[in-house]
Each structure stands twice: as C-alpha cells, then as structure tokens.
Design brief:
There is one protein chain. Helix content is 0%, strand content 55%. It is mainly β. Strands 2, 4, 5, 6, 9, 10 and 11 form a seven-stranded mixed sheet that branches. The protein has a four-stranded antiparallel sheet with strand order 1-3-8-7, with no helix packed on it. The model has no long low-confidence stretch (mean pLDDT 94).
C-alpha cells in the first residue's frame, strides 16, 4: 500500500502562485509515475502534470509554461509549482501515484479576486 498526503492548496488572486506538495509513504519502491490531476465542480477529473521515476514530464496544454512538476526526497515527494494562476485553474487537486493507482485526499485551489 502507498499513502499520499497533499499540502499547499489555498486561495490566491489571479496572476499569483501556489506550490503543492505530495508526500508518498509505504511500499513506494514500486511507484514509477507520480502526478497531479484536478477536478472542477461539474467537470471530469483531468490530468495536470505527471513525472516518471526517470524524470520525464507531461503537462496538460492548459498549464504548459505556467506549472512545473518536480520530484525530491529520492522521488518520495512530488511538487507542483503553479505560477500565473487563472480563475479557471480553480479545482480540487489530487496527487496520484502508479502503478497500480493510488490517490491522495485532494487539496482545494481557489483562484479569485
């Protein structure tokens, strides 16, 4: 089993920045990919960014150039630096680790003036 604990959400004005962190514990040697997904009210959960054990990254087109995903602590922690935040970035952000597939509890990000 793998446990994921997220932190760093909150309220920020448009154009501001936030940094999300997700700490993994448990049987983590099997984890190949970690990432962030988000779900806005009334919408499907969508990919934001992923990073593999080898450091390869994937980003949603909507966040490219604004968000940066990284791993630290021997790959046990994944961070999401979010800059130039927009109102449409408002959502609950979930950390995911795979395989097979583990989810964190989610952290709210609200971008509003």
């Amino acid at each position: 089993q793998v446990q994921l604990v997220e932190s760093g959400g909150g309220l920020v004005q448009p154009g501001g920045s936030l940094r999300l962190s997700c700490a993994a514990s448990g049987i983590i040697f099997s984890i190949i990919e970690m990432g962030w997904y988000r779900q806005a009210p009334g919408k499907e959960r969508e990919l934001v960014a992923t990073i593999t054990r080898g450091g390869s990254t994937t980003y949603a087109n909507s966040v490219k150039g604004r968000f940066t995903i990284s791993r630290e602590n021997a790959g046990n922690t994944v961070n999401l630096q979010m800059n130039s935040l927009k109102v449409e970035d408002t959502a609950v952000y979930y950390c995911r680790a795979s395989p097979p597939m583990y989810w964190g509890q989610g952290t709210q990000v609200t971008v509003s003036s």
